[in-house]
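Researcher: Go.
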Amino acid sequence: MQLEFNNPFEEDGNWYKGNLHTHTTGSDGALSPEDTAQQYKKAGYHFLSITDHNCITRIEKNQGILLIPGEEMACGRKGSHIVGIGLKEAITYNNDQITNFGKNFWEVSPREMAELIKKQGGVSIIAHPHWSGLDSCDMLEASDCDMMEVFNTNCHHEQDKAYCMTYWDNLLMEDKNIFAVASDDAHNRPFAFNQPDACGSWIMVKAKKLTEWDIMQQIKRGMFYASWGPEIKDLKISGNTIHVTTSLVKSISFISCAGVGAKFTADKEPIKEAEYVITGPQQFVRVQCCDMQGRMAWTNAVIIK
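Model: Structure:
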């Protein structure tokens, strides 16, 4: 049995908090790019990607937070939304036509979009598949993307379609080792009960320096975990045993294929660690935890050969 996992908890460096999906007045957001950057800086984020629709929104003045250029594009037969980060130039639109391809957006497949992002040295993310109404065939068509959103803050408050773990597991069971991020998709528009969609979820990246190159390289390697609340403090693999340490949580789960896996739940007091022994045939194991407020965090998947 061979376990494949780029373990950020064993990597030298520092933890950096960031959001990879944000909108401003550059498209359909309510705040200016500068106000959005300051909003995230004040909330303790170290880096941010402003991903306005069909354009790259740039800020010339230093905002005291690392800004990574990004864009959100629609493509494919269902108008799948693909976020590209680390882009050098915009993937431009002329009415309904993507000028980079000379095609209407529904004629451009998610696979082609992922390839175009990759050619720029960027990273592609399948955005909010639950909100988009994607099915298993759509996800497989988009599985050349580097990552997908397992949680989306905006979709949580707007339609209660935030969670996408089943989509992720289905791809992992098809041997598509795709990483998962938690993103805000912030628009700063009011929702029911005035719940904000900004500064609600994030990824924690382990990197030596807070530069675009360092953060992008580590994201490409999967050297991060995703959260909208709990902290994952450590993950150790010894032989076929996975041991995880977290902040105080209600449950820690080891998710695998079909009916395999285990869930450890608090009795009277919250728990902060759990251990799982891999036995029998399994394709992957990923860790997710849930705190007392129902918020979750996720590691990327440990692939089992």
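Model: The radius of gyration is 19 Å.
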